[in-house]
Fold:
Amino acid sequence: MSDTIEQDWGNYWQGRAASEAGTALVGVGVETNAEIAAFWTARFETLPKTARLLDLACGAGSVVRHAAALGLTELTGVDISKDAIATLKSEFPTVTGVVASADASGLPRGSFDVVASQFGFEYADAVKAAADAARLLGTGGQFLALAHSADSAIEAEVSGLGGDAKAVLDSGFISAARDLFFADMSGSSDAVFQTAAQAFAGPQAQVLTIAKKAGGLAAHLYQGTQTLYQQRKRYHLEDVLGWLGGMEAEITAFLGRMDSMQAAALSEAQAKAVVQALEKGGLTAQPLEKFLSPSTGDVIGWIISATDKN
Ligand SMILES: C[S@@+](CC[C@H](N)C(=O)[O-])C[C@H]1O[C@@H](n2cnc3c(N)ncnc32)[C@H](O)[C@@H]1O
Structure:
């Protein structure tokens, strides 16, 4: 796994997400979820257009998008990844982007009317982030978050995807493919080539099974390797090795993100601790509840909500 959450998400925001989708939950089924969009829209449409809204761990601005669509203009996003903020700014140039941890934004006390977060603040120290959110809210302000919960459908999906990514890395496919390309393209003897081909067969079968079941990065790796092999006369060895190295980094970062999503998921006790931190910060919390998909009844996450009653 790569060293930090920041690197794992940076890899994501620099890569396919930034160029193709621009939302952080691609692959786990909620990035374009109309039910989540409706959740935010219903809560934001009663806000005055002048409301100052902060999106904690905003990614490319999934929450900001709903507020902007309703005509709110005083929008700020905080994310630990500078690449996420760059993606946010490319789509919403007038939104203020801040590269910081959600538990240490350094923004001024009382400077927001709404602090919102979608699968975000819990990636930081959730209790510290909640305490800071209370500090950031002005009179009458509200905190509203949709947070990962340990029993959600997303967590089940993430656990499966992480398992598949780990199995791809553990199969040894990438190092065996490196050896095979090296043997083939650097003029090694037949014996060396045969040994490399035999060593590749097992990992190849394993990755094919995962690719057929899961698609995604496993399929991209499998098909890309196959295509490169078929067309190897058109490539230099270093290009092929560079592509394999890039895939290894991408899958490693993906696994890191899946692990971080699982680590971020709040148990009931942790969600209650977040609520306590909000109350300690002077807010009045609504009872903790789960957001259930209106269509399937699946648990999507916690709704954590609190208001400054002053
Ligand atoms: C699951 S994504 C959600 C992004 C966005 N809220 C959305 O719903 O599309 C989690 C985000 O948290 C960010 N992140 C991870 N750790 C963080 C931290 N300590 N502080 C702020 N952002 C963090 C990542 O860069 C990523 O953009």
Summary: The two ends are 46 Å apart (CA to CA).
